[in-house]
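Open question from group meeting: does this chain pack into something compact, or does most of it stay loose? Before anyone orders reagents, we agreed to write out a predicted structure and look at it together. Recording both the input and the output here so the notebook holds the full record.
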Amino acid sequence: MESPIPPELPPVSAPPPIPEPPAVSVPVEPPPPTDLELADRLAAGRSQIERELGKSIVGQQAVIEQILVALFAGGHCLITGAPGLAKTLLVKSIAQVFQLEFQRIQFTPDLMPADITGTEILQDHGGVRTMTFVRGPVFANLLLADEINRTPPKTQAALLEAMQEHQVTAAGVRHTLEEPFFVLATQNPIEMEGTYPLPEAQLDRFMLNVVMDYLPEDDEVQVVLRTTGRRGEPIVPLFSGADILRFHQLVRQVPVAEELARYAVRLAAASRPRQSGGPDFVKNWVTWGAGTRAGQNLILGAKSRVLLQGRTHVTADDIRFLAVPVLRHRILLNYRAEAEGVQVEQLIQRLLETVPGPEGTPGAK
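Structure tokens returned:
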């Protein structure tokens, strides 16, 4: 018996094509700016920075320039002036321009070191007690130490490790500060009541000591009219912390001649009373002179000023411009100088007139 013929199966149709996933566009990061582009941006940004700061600060152009020099060089700055000269407002406005995390500490006689750096507290986590570090206000990009000389030296010294090493050590544990990190400290004139002199070791950590004086009459009238009228325009951020870190690297690449470095070293060395061959007026008036950091900051600040002005190399005039803010807090006058009414700025001017400058530069002796 013949087996039945199986029915024919329908033809198998090909599966439909699998649609390809849509192409995902991967954003391409722009290449990092070149050194020349960074230098042009910094030079062009100076006028913009001054314009934004001018929304809240009247005058004080020399003060603003010196603070910007320290900021782009990566140094800390001490601002000295009487109360009511807008020192605090200036620092806060700079933080807004550069979009920096800002913290302010009001230094008082009862302030403790842990109030600055942070402290460990005992916390209970599900029945388990552990010590937890609570960070203090020093953990910021821009720290305003307001009236720093109104607290005793023990509390002032709490900033030393943070300023030098950019870290805080608590209970044997090292806590790194976020970069960039700057300390802009304000202080009242030391002869005012209720102030404490800053330790020499801490003074030396400040790159510049900028002095804010009273404004001329016209500028002071503008301040009165502006602060008693309607609120001004808000400050527009121009740069970021990442930009500042790039500027720090760029500043250190500015070339400087060896003879200019020698000039900066000679200026600092001439302020030391025990230096052989030093000027007689230094031996008569100075108890302690500037150290090696003075020469370093003269050169580093000069490089920063060069870029701010859109130039490419350091000159002796850049060093002379920074001599007073770099040296004024590093030279300790003796009682004889005080009795004769000698100011530290006068002594620095005599140093500039006495120490020979590089050959071929304007004003060289």
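Observations to bring back to the group:
DSSP finds 15 helices and eleven strands in the chain.
The longest strand covers residues 118-125.
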